[in-house]
Amino acid sequence: MQILRVRFTTKATIIQVSAARGWYYKKCIACNMKVIGESSNLQCADHGPQPTANYGYCFRIIIDDGTTTATVTCFSPEAHTFVPECNEVVNAADNKDNRHLPEILKQLENKTYVFQYRFGKRARPGHPNFSLDVAFKPSAQSLLGLPAPQPATPPSQEILQQTSSNMPTETTKTNPCPLAEGSSHGLNTSSEAPKKTAKRELFAEKEGSDKKPRQE
């Protein structure tokens, strides 16, 4: 899908770290696929038995850039750009409950970073499902360090006068109802009634007739 190629970069503050769906999972040492089975018998569907437990992040963060909020899922190894490696955190945690957020992840809240993220594989309209690409601390040399916009300078009065003097002064009269003038379209709109023509005499006497008047 074309939508999966879209990338976003924003400077935002983490307002919440969530472990509602777990903050880590057991994954294959050769890929990021989730493994199944007990710790002594872990299996990857593609790479078979796993010699040791390997952990990866899957926690969520809600970020706010000042205009809107977004929920981004942080997987390993991308999450290692701003938090310690997942195996270290899991092995050091006293409570390894998948939904019990460790203190080191709680401390991310209210901190500001520059985030680059993308649409996840399950993204669909109404459910963007963002996934993290990288996160780093903002600095003067960050990707968002764009130059400040220059103030707009209005044109001088001399230029405005020259522009107005060069404007054409001739105006063209427009007839809003062109059909009202019949002469322009060859129409006869005269109010005079058409003249009547004399009827042709059907029995007119011929001139120089030889017929004489009757004598009594």
TrEMBL record:
Domain of life, per lineage: Eukaryota
Protein's UniProt keywords contain Nucleotide-binding: yes
Segments of skewed composition (Basic and acidic residues): 193-216
Sequence ranges assigned to domain Replication factor A C-terminal in this UniProt record: 8-119
Gene Ontology MF annotations: helicase activity
PANTHER family, per the entry: OS03G0429900 PROTEIN
Residue numbers spanned by region Disordered: 143-216
Polar residues bias: start-end ranges: 155-175
Organism: Tanacetum coccineum
Protein name from the UniProt record: DNA helicase
The keyword ATP-binding is annotated on this UniProt entry: yes
Coiled coil: none
Keywords of the record: ATP-binding, Helicase, Hydrolase, Nucleotide-binding
